[in-house]
Please model this.
Amino acid sequence: MKTSRREFMEAVGSVAAGSLVLGAAGAGQPAGAAPATERSSGRIEAVAFDGFTLLDFRALPQAAERLFPGQGARFEEVWRTRLFDYGWLRVLGGQYRDFEGLSADAFDFTALLLKLDPTAAARREYLDTLLALQPWPEAAEVLSGLRSAGLKLAFLSNFTPAMLATIGRRTGLDRLMDPPLSTDAVRSYKPDPKAYQLGVRAFGVPKERVAFVAHGGWDAAGASWFGFRTYWINRTGIPLDGLGATPIATLASLAPLQSLVSRG
Model:
């Protein structure tokens, strides 16, 4: 778990170029691709997306540096680590708090740890950055292609329903996708199987016919454990987590997704 979070931090700090990470197993085969005999049969009918696969998270460390010059990278690392720690610990302890509340709690802890004294306006500006994230450049085109192919599409995110609704309206992604799915509905967070089950229920298709597009390596593992056909958007080329789960493909951007999903 500790290594997975550290690697997730690295993904926030930089974004690598390219569209497909090729595996050593053979030319043209996506890295981490499961053998054909291990893949689920049947056509993919729906695709669920983690929020950060569609939203450019680089604004978060940029905002931290703007508000806390010289400490932005450290602030972002501590904040994001504490954010996910709080979520998973609260679920395990039966003390659920929604993602917006966790974000604020993590901000306050980080400020105390780094001996900062941010104003209320600075606190609000940083937290509002989550709602102001822009789509990745290729996101709209990829979603349009998948939608034209007749697939059901939705966010499946730890963000609250209000956060997802705001982001959808502001970015226009709500016109390309089905209603967003928030894990708040089950008062839990991914990788809890109950969180992924939201997609099965909303799409009305078997989990084996749902593709899940993950940002975090831990989320790719969780979705694979659940039984989704998982694609990992690994924009920095970090190693696969040692969690015993391998995504169908590891991609450096969304660009190849439609072609891969159409092949199942």
